[in-house]
Amino acid sequence: MIRFIVLSLMCVATLFANSVVDVPTRSGVSERIHVLKSENPRAVAILFAGGHGGLQIGDDGKYGWGAGNFLVRSAELFVKAGLMVVVVDAPSDRQKEPYLNGFRQTKEHVQDTQAVIAWVQSQTNAPIWLVGTSRGTQSVASIALADVKGIHGIVLTSTILHDTKSKAVSELDLEKLSIPVLVAHHENDGCSHCSFSLVENMMKKLDKNPHKALLTFQGGQTKGDPCNAFGYHGFNGIEQEVVMKMTDWMLTH
Question: How far apart are the first and last CA of the chain?
């Protein structure tokens, strides 16, 4: 069983109700995760933030970067829906620039995530979902395609559909996936990497997968850079609706 270190425990009555854990992965490397857990979780959502992914999670569970990321700021909504939440930071050997940039589609990233999954399995028998947003979708899709054991399904939100620096999710061999795949996208996503007009081509790769779905959203508000977490790209203002519809689907597949 993988050893772990609990650095912060907010609720003694419920094990790992809100804790920071360092999970050993590769030799000399650990993966820091922030765990939020309710009693008897119905499923587990392992969350992969977008951007460079270096959340810099402190011993107290505070974030040095990325607290406003769609998935990070919505973590409690997943918990309220009955899920255990595991927020993944960059590994200990990637705690400075470029963090996860250039790393999301590597075998080392896969190995780190496999260790996190094994840790989760030591805590609960609930089905495990990998959930990514923006560049986090490149992590999730690549890890799933590496045939990592223990993954029940994946969720891709604000998916990277065009990229000149690495493979866009739509360029990956998604047709090989047989596990459930849920795609959530805002119809007015203004990020040039995530244009809604490109979603259809990606969904075609999933045609033969009987356990796939596309959830589309409108409304909310957009502020600043269209690729940031407070644009339509980050489902700003409609977080509760998005998480509710995603978790409803996850818990029935």
Answer: 28
